[in-house]
Design brief:
By secondary structure, the chain is mainly beta. It has 2 domains: about 1-30; about 30-185, AOC barrel-like (Beta Barrel). Helices cover about 15% and strands about 55% of the residues. It is built from 1 helix and 8 strands, in the order αββββββββ. Strands 1-2-3-4-5-6-7-8 form an 8-stranded antiparallel beta barrel. A hairpin with a 7-residue loop joins strand 6 and strand 7. Mean pLDDT is about 85; it is low at about 20-25 and about 190-195.
Length: about 200
């Protein structure tokens, strides 16, 4: 009788351990999907980088912030049309952004690479403020973002700080947010090198 009880107990323990281990492996195979919500502030200005897009100038934004993915910095370079385009969503002047990319750097050293898919700047000449909406495709990165994919939307408000000799604004404060869905993020402890 005792042998039978011990045997049943051992079999039960073995089954529990097997199911527990299987559950752990099943969970680690699932892609991690995060609904990203991040806020930032920083500056923007014309950039010396030439993206070779006809009829455009290059702008650069350098911001820092925090959110669901952790503390980060974001550098974005994009080509903006020199001539306004019609837009039903903008009551001011709308300048399309036609090409660009950016890199988000997180506190753990992981990088998240993004490329511009579309967007632009709506300039209110009465209030002297620019409202920008850009959509970025995520293209992997390093560390925990090596296999990342998804889409991020940037919305920001830009206000002029400095103008050139012709009174054209050339340096701006920028505040805003990045939202979207990021999938394929590596879990901490999966053996990936977290350094850039």
């Amino acid at each position: 009788m005792k042998t039978r009880t011990v045997t049943r107990t051992l079999i039960l323990v073995a089954l529990m351990l097997t199911r527990g281990v299987t559950g752990v492996y099943a969970q680690s195979d699932r892609p991690t999907i995060v609904r990203a919500k991040m806020t930032f502030s920083g500056n923007g200005a014309p950039s010396p980088i030439n993206l070779n897009q006809p009829g455009t100038g290059t702008v650069e934004e350098n911001v820092a912030g925090n959110g669901t993915l952790g503390a980060f910095t974001f550098r974005n370079v994009s080509a903006t049309e020199n001539t306004p385009s019609p837009s039903s969503a903008c009551s001011g002047l709308f300048f399309r952004r036609v090409a660009g990319a950016g890199v988000l750097r997180f506190q753990d050293g992981s990088l998240l690479n993004v490329s511009l898919t579309h967007g632009g700047d709506c300039i209110d000449l009465v209030q002297m403020v620019g409202n920008c909406t850009l959509t970025f495709q995520i293209n992997g990165g390093t560390g925990r973002f090596q296999d990342a994919s998804g889409v991020l939307t940037l919305t920001e408000t830009a206000r002029p700080v400095l103008a050139d000799a012709f009174n054209n604004p050339v340096f701006f404060t920028e505040t805003g947010k990045l939202t979207g869905t990021v999938s394929g993020i590596a879990e901490a402890g999966e053996g990936r090198d977290e350094r850039p």
